[in-house]
Specification:
- By secondary structure, the protein is mainly α.
- The protein contains 11 helices and 6 strands.
- The protein has helices spanning 49-69, 75-91, 94-97, 102-118, 127-134, 139-142, 146-153, 158-164, 194-203, 207-210, 215-244, and strands spanning 9-10, 23-24, 27-28, 30-31, 34-37, 40-43.
- A hairpin with a 2-residue loop joins strand 5 and strand 6.
- Helix 1 packs parallel to helix 4 and helix 7 (146-153) packs antiparallel against helix 11.
- It is globular and about 65 Å long.
């Protein structure tokens, strides 16, 4: 198979990259500051802000079409449309391009905020109350990637997971028995990588969740664990308000 030289470009990655020139046959290849690969836009600084903006822009267009073409504002109509047409764009390959900065997280979260506010009867509630009423989690919580981690550690991708994660060798009985080792890194951007950011969340899961025999069982137990965490945080918040006399 012959390569199309007009479609081949060089993406120089790294702060101190010497940016050498390359050629394919006798033709020199052009340099490019960013390239899209399998639907994910990568730039020379591995900054995912542009990818986040594009995903949000695409979903905002879809949301506009839903507003114009669908008369109903009931949750039975809006939620399935959001799950089928919009959320896949916000989560496609997100383990690779998950946002690193708060401004990018807000850009993505705003899409779900607008969608839940469309639903009849919920428009005057706060975002957190709307999520609780609809049984949803914020996109940031969904990006904790625990389902993907389960696949790499105990599911279908277990062989690949052996090279991605390091297990903690310990006989401590507190917490779950499948804890992972937190790596050390020099750059802040490293802690946003999938193999780093998921470790802390995984280590906090209860024993019954990480010991689930199948993925579907894990999803059900994870859902319960996250719900308990939300209610616990809400209880602490309400207790703080009562103590201050705000309620």
């Amino acid at each position: 198979m012959k390569f199309n030289k007009a479609k081949c470009k060089v993406l120089h990655v790294g702060r101190d990259n010497p940016k050498h020139k390359y050629r394919l046959g006798v033709e020199w290849l052009e340099s490019s500051p960013e390239e899209k690969d399998l639907g994910v836009l990568l730039d020379e600084k591995l900054n995912m802000s542009r990818q986040c903006a594009l995903a949000a822009q695409k979903d905002n267009c879809i949301l506009g079409c839903i507003k114009r073409s669908v008369a109903s504002r009931s949750r039975e109509v809006i939620l399935p449309l959001y799950s089928a047409l919009m959320r896949p764009h916000l989560e496609y390959c997100v383990q690779l391009w998950g946002p690193q900065h708060k401004k990018d997280m807000d850009v993505l979260e705003w899409v779900q905020r607008r969608t839940t506010k469309m639903i009849r009867g919920l428009q005057y509630l706060s975002y957190e109350d709307r999520l609780r009423e609809l049984g949803l989690f914020s996109l940031e919580k969904r990006r904790c990637d625990l389902i993907a981690a389960f696949q790499y550690l105990k599911g279908a991708y277990r062989k690949d997971g052996e090279g991605l994660f390091t297990r903690v060798c310990s006989d401590r009985t507190r917490g779950n028995s499948s804890k992972l080792k937190e790596g050390r890194f020099r750059l802040d951007v490293r802690k946003k990588f999938f193999t780093m950011k998921v470790v802390k969340h995984w280590n906090r899961l209860p024993r019954e969740a990480v010991n689930a025999p199948f993925l579907e069982v894990f999803k059900a137990r994870l859902h319960g664990a996250l719900r308990n965490l939300i209610w616990w945080k809400m209880s602490l918040l309400m207790a703080g308000r009562l103590e201050r006399g705000d309620l």
